[in-house]
Amino acid sequence: MTHKFIEIPKIEDPRGNLSVIENQTFPFEIKRVYYLYDVPSGAYRGGHAHKEQYELLIAVSGSFEVVLDNGARKETVMLNKPNIGLLIPTMVWRELQNFSSGSVCLVLASDVFVEADYIRDYEHFKSSKTTP
User: How confident is residue 130, by pLDDT bands cut at 50, 70 and 90?
Assistant: First the structure.
């Protein structure tokens, strides 16, 4: 699988921890930030791949699973630490599921929203992975 975990610097303090995200933390410039929250029990998010955009997902509160599919293999990872981000490169199908109560997923993206960058049909995604 081509994803990787990124450790976000954490400054520990008896008053509470602080994590800092700067561009040198991961390999792209942040052009968009959004977050998912109040996801109902049993619901899922995602269900797409990006042609050009990279994303870093962080469970800033609670936990959730990310199902990753590179066209040849599927893998499910759990995000539940606010100082660990999941870097998802281009052309990886992702689905987010099993959100705990009160969970928040922060997403840092390498580009602004461009609908043409999304592949929202799984069969189209699979066929694009086998095309040279």
Answer: low
**What pLDDT, in 10s, does the model give residues 59-70?**
999 999 999 999
Whether 113 and 38 have beta carbons less than 8 Å apart is answered as no
- Give the pLDDT score at 93: 97
Which residues have a catalytic role annotated? Answer: 48
Q: What is the dihedral of CA 108, 111, 115, 119, to 10 degrees?
A: -70
3-state secondary structure the chain: CCCEEEECCEECCCCCCEECCCHHHCCCCCCEEEEEECCCCCCCEEEEEECCCCEEEEEEECCEEEEEECCCCEEEEEECCCCEEEEECCCCEEEEECCCCCCEEEEEECCCCCHHHEECCHHHHHHHHHCC
Which of 109, 83, 82, 84 is closest to 94 using CA atoms? 109
For the question of whether the overall pTM of this predicted structure is more than 0.70, the answer is yes
